[in-house]
Structure formats: C-alpha cells, structure tokens
Design goal:
The complex is a heterodimer of chains A (about 120) and B (about 350). With about 120 residues, chain A is of the alpha/beta class. Chain A contains 5 helices and 5 strands. The chains are: A alpha/beta (about 120), B alpha+beta (about 350).
C-alpha cells in the first residue's frame, strides 16, 4: 500500500493520522472537504482511505465513499457519532472506527483491511 | 365550529336527535342495584366515558358521563346525537383517525392516542380506548369509548426526547474533543522527541474520556451507574470480550468519582496487560462492584479486581509504580483507597470510595 487518502476536517486529527501513516511508510494525502478529496483522487492513485463522516456545515463524506466504492478502493469510516453515521453510509457496509481511536490503531486497521482484500 | 365535519353535520345532528334514545341504565340491561351502581360509578369515575349507538346513522353518542363533560367542555345535551368526530381538529392525525374507523368497522378493541379539541378550541392528548359492546344475543349494541387526558405524558416524552438529543450532541462533541486532544498530544510528543511520554499521557486521557462518556445521559440525575463507566474504561483491554468478566448490579456513585475510578482501572489494566493476567493468552480478570456499609453506617462503593491465570507471581513487584502512585493520590482526594495484594495466581485489588450520604 503506497498512498492513503485522509478526509478529515479537524486539522489535529488529520495531522496525527498523517504522521502515523508515514511511520508505517505510507504516504497520506489530506483533504478537508469532499471537493478537495475528489481533486486528490484525480491526482493520486489512492490505495485506501480514512473518511471522517461529518465534515461540518452538514457535509458528509458520502459522495467520496460512493466514488471509492465505485473504484473498488477500501476505506474505513472514522466518526465520533455512531448513531448519526446515516442510512446511506450504513448501506456501504464499510468498517466504522469510533473516535477517539489511537492513530496507530487506525493505521493498523486500514492496512489490515487492504491485505485481506488482496489475493494471497 | 365545523371541524372537519364537512357538510351535513347539522342534519345528522338533528336527525340523530330524533332517533337517538337517551341511554338509561334502567332500561338498557341494567336494573335495580347494579343499575344504581353503574350510574354512580359512571358519575364518580375520573375517566371520561361515552357510549355510541352504531345502529343509528353515523354512530352518534347516546351517553357521556361527567368526566367526559369536564374533559371536553361540552355538556351531555350538546354531544348526544352527534358523532364523536367533533373532538377532532386540524392537527389531529388522520392516520390515528383511520385506525379508529377501521376498529369500528371490524368491531375490534383499540387503544389509540390522538390530539383532540375541547369546546373552547384548546387541545389535549387523548388516550382513547374503544371497543364494541354486545347484547345477550351477540348483537352489536354500543361502542364504548373512554378518554384519558395524557397531555402531561406527551410533554414529558417530548422533553425526554429533547434531553436525549442534547446528551447525544454533547457526547458527540466530547468524543471529538478527546480525539483532538489525542492528536495534539501525539503531535507534541513527536515534535519534542518524547513519544513514550506522550503515549502514556494519551492513554490516561483517553481512559478518562471513556469513563465519562457513558455517564452523560445520567449526570443530570446527580449520580451515575458505575458499571457502565467500568465497562467503557476497560473495553480496549479486552477486544474479544472474553478476558474480563464483569459482575455487578446498578450501583451508583457521584460523577466526580469517575476520574479516580477510571484512571485507577486504567492503571490496573495496563499493569495486567504488561505483567499480569492480560499479558498471556489464558488469564482473566474478574471485576465486581457493590455498595458496602461500615459499622458507622457509612456507605462506600467497592470495586474488586481479581486476576487469574496470568504468569505466576514469584516476588512482590516494586512497591510503587508511577501509575499506581497517581491512582493512590487521586483516590485519596475522593476519600478512597486502593489496596493491592499480590497472590500467587494473580493480583487482587480493591478500590474503595466513600459515598456522600
């Protein structure tokens, strides 16, 4: 796994995750909104993603999640509000990681996710 | 005054007046003592009651009691001969009305809540109970309707929903705050080349966050259930859910005690993960909690920690570790103690906290 997309509107959480990915030798691209995330997806070949569910001002990560699903890119939802993850996102059946979660644990989960999808 | 009745209300009313025979306990199957009892009970009950006659056109009311008059503001002579729907208004749910219609059609018993209107136009939530009454031959004679004002219950429910929504919002924000704090601590530790320290700080902060998280709903009641906080603090140390056994009832304590309990349990669990029953694949920890009363009648909360199946303990570990030092001091502030006994098969620990009476 070479490149990960982090969609997160809280800079400290994004930065913490980015460092944790870099520790594992993975490049992490950070986006704070869906439109930034789509730009990032155009520029980088992304192998996986961590998506914050609520991006502020009512925006959710759903469009990005749909796009990743279309491209067959594995992702996890990272949220502090499990109830409000929303029906649409629940239908995507992606793993949900409850905030707060240690950044290293998040990295571990997503790297493990990728491995289990790859052919042995 | 025409509330959803449409045209012809007046006609139906007039018509029914001519046909509707006022209900009488004497002639309608009640006689003598039972008739008297029936009338007295009807007059005295606080439950509003009315009877309708489905054999007459538009199923008009033929009887209502005093409580019905008090609840709705209508007098008996104003309602006899009319169909009950005059109690409905613009905000009455048509879905509920349809249920009533269906129950009457199929002669079934129904309990339904709907918004009704008094004569003066004010509204009340009505828990309506209706059902058919048959005569000796099994023929449908009346419909029975009892009305109960449940407005206060509805208000309480709305307030409860509001309170729950608020608690959820606070909980969501608190989790985010703890996530951000975690990020700041990690980034700072990295920048200052002190990652082992920042890691420890973060573990304690997050344990504290977990201890408080499930208490938000209840903190308003003044006390919180200990078990929820205990489970929540310890959950990360038992990802499979088969190493820590919880035994306890709904014992409660003050929200302020949660910090000390949360951090102490965190230290015990960290210690168990490194050296004790959670450091191998077989060990288990039993955590139990209960209230205890000493001989002076003072209540305390006791949490017992019992490890089993860990690596054998050959010598008593160093008397102090920084983690336990912090726990001891914190507990002292809450007039509590942490006793530790290193038995051969594992650590026994007891957290004891005085409860304010």
């Amino acid at each position: 796994m070479k490149t990960i997309l982090i969609l997160e509107d809280e800079p400290f959480i994004a930065m913490d995750l980015q460092f944790a990915f870099e520790d594992s030798g993975v490049q992490a691209v950070v986006a704070v909104s869906c439109s930034e995330a789509f730009t990032a997806l155009d520029r980088h070949a992304v192998d996986g993603a961590v998506l914050d569910v609520n991006l502020g001002q009512g925006e959710t990560c759903e469009p990005v999640a749909q796009e990743l699903r279309k491209r067959d890119v594995p992702f996890v939802l990272h949220t502090g509000d499990l109830d409000r993850a929303g029906e649409a996102l629940r239908d995507l059946a992606a793993p949900i990681l409850a905030k707060p979660m240690d950044a290293e644990a998040v990295v571990e989960r997503i790297l493990g996710l990728r491995r289990s999808c790859e052919p042995a | 005054m025409h509330r959803g009745d449409g045209d012809g209300t007046r006609d139906t009313f007039e018509q029914a007046q001519h046909v509707a025979k006022p209900f009488s306990a004497e002639t309608d199957n009640f006689s003598g003592a039972s008739g008297l009892l029936f009338e007295q009970a009807m007059a005295q009950t606080r439950m509003a009651v009315c009877l309708t006659d489905p054999r007459l056109e538009d199923d008009p009311i033929i009887f209502c009691n005093k409580a019905f008059e008090r609840l709705t503001g209508y007098r008996q002579e104003e309602v006899v001969g009319r169909n009950c729907r005059f109690l409905q208004g613009p905000k009455t749910s048509q879905k509920q009305v349809a249920k009533i219609r269906e129950a009457i059609r199929s002669e079934e018993v129904l309990v339904v809540e709907l918004l009704n209107y008094r004569k003066d136009g004010s509204t009340f939530w009505n828990a309506l109970h209706l059902g058919p009454i048959y005569d000796d031959e099994g023929e449908l004679r009346y419909f029975f309707g009892s009305q109960w004002d449940v407005t206060d219950i509805h208000l309480a429910r709305a307030e409860e929903r509001h309170a729950k929504a608020m608690a959820r919002e606070v909980s969501h924000r608190l989790k985010n705050v703890f996530a951000v704090i975690g990020g700041i601590v990690n980034i700072t530790g990295r920048a200052m080349d002190a990652r082992p320290v920042s890691g420890k700080i973060n573990e304690r902060i997050q344990a504290l966050g977990r201890a408080y998280e499930p208490t938000l709903d209840e903190a308003a009641f003044g006390t919180i259930e200990v078990g929820q906080a205990i489970r929540s603090v310890l959950s990360p140390y038992d990802p499979e859910g088969d190493r820590i056994v919880f035994e306890g009832n709904g014992a409660r304590t003050e929200p302020n005690a949660v910090s000390a309990i949360g951090l102490t349990l965190h230290e015990l669990a960290t210690n168990a993960s490194k050296y004790g029953a959670l450091s191998n694949r077989e060990g288990t920890v039993t955590v139990s909690w209960h209230h205890e009363e000493d001989r002076h009648g003072r209540q305390s909360l006791v949490i017992d920690w019992k490890e089993k199946g860990g690596p054998p303990i050959t010598a008593k570990p160093e008397p102090t570790g920084t983690g336990f030092d912090i726990a001891d001091r914190l507990l002292a502030f809450s007039r509590g103690t942490l006793d530790r006994i290193w038995e051969g098969d594992g650590l026994r620990a007891r957290i004891s906290l005085a409860l304010r009476s």
